[in-house]
Amino acid sequence: MTCEFRVIPPGKSTWFTLLAVAVALPLLALIHMLVTAQMDVLKSGLSGYGGVAAISVLVASGLFLSLRRLSISIDGDSLVVRAALFTRRVRIAELDLAAARVADLDNDREWRPVLRTNGIGLPGACMGHHRGKPWERRIFCALTSHERVLVLPERNGVRCLLLSAEKPKALLGALAALH
To answer: Residue 21's pLDDT is what?
Structure first.
């Protein structure tokens, strides 16, 4: 049995950043090349500009597609979180549901991710593996908002999940029912 829970979609700031990577970086490279290059060098340099433009568009496209891969589901006895390029599967029995809560990360800084170890960080989106305070705390994030974040610590006291579920209390209730 699989039960899906919707994730809050990334906001405008995330998509604007991706657009800036795809459009502004190649444009800045072209302007730089036009201002600094001489005419004979410019002809040979346009092929280099095409490479910069192609790489920028590919990176932005890859990020765009990966950010559309956001899901939270309960699959049997496990919670499965897919966030961009990353997936975390945790047995529900390993979660400390008594310590779980819905938090506003702007006010409750205890749970905020501090250091990205293997993840994606864009304005309005934080995905993947991070560290928190204390530094031993390992955090897996699927964050698209700092408001109404479901904080799910694991029983080992070291790891936790931060999830931007549209209905965090419903997800917590479903987990508690299966615990």
So the answer is: 76
